[in-house]
Design a protein that fits this description.
Elements lengths: L1 H16 L17 E5 L2 E6 L5 H10 L5 E6 L26 H8 L17 E6 L4 E6 L2 H26 L1
Antiparallel strand pairs: 1-2, 2-3, 4-5
Length: 169
């Protein structure tokens, strides 16, 4: 019986701590680009690890890496990616640049999973009082507040960060 209680407590803690996370807008002018490379009067500066919390986890899960790149062209010629210029890793493999919409869809929070909190709706708080001869049981349907409250609250809390993420791309 004690194992079941501990298991239920762990499930409850993980359920209540799995909430929507915020998103901090990325402003290129304020980024401290830590790595740089210069070739033919074209300076390339870049920075990894721009995202935090759930968005960083989504990067790992989806195999997408968001990188801030600053290009300074001091040469006489124009730069055209895919034309006369390509981005490559140190080993020579070409960097695959994804479309903004594909990156957004890969990194955004999945708000539909917050609907699982509605499974808490039938939850009831039972109190049983005994006075020696009879038992009196009172039942309070706390799930009617907890389930929809957590589901709706998290969906609303995730809507603004998703909107900001979309605006950032």
């Amino acid at each position: 019986m004690k194992i079941i209680q501990i298991t239920l407590l762990c499930i409850a803690i993980s359920t209540f701590t799995n909430c929507a996370s915020g998103y901090k807008m990325i402003t290129p002018k304020s980024i401290n680009y830590v790595s740089s490379n210069e070739t033919d009067n074209v300076k390339l500066e870049y920075k990894y690890d721009l995202l935090d919390k759930k968005y960083a986890k989504n990067e790992l899960k989806k195999g997408v890496k968001l990188v801030a790149i600053k290009i300074t062209n001091n040469s006489e010629k124009d730069i055209m990616f895919g034309g006369n210029t390509t981005l490559t890793y140190e080993n020579g493999n070409e960097v695959i640049v994804l479309e903004n919409e594909k990156v957004f869809n890969s990194l955004k929070q999945n708000t539909a999973t917050y609907l699982l909190y509605l499974l808490l709706t039938p939850l009831q708080f039972n109190v049983t009082k005994t006075n020696g001869y009879s038992m009196e049981t009172n039942s309070t349907p706390i799930g009617l507040l907890i389930g929809p409250g957590l589901a709706g609250g998290n969906m609303i809390a995730a809507a603004l960060p998703i909107k900001n993420l979309k605006l950032n791309y």
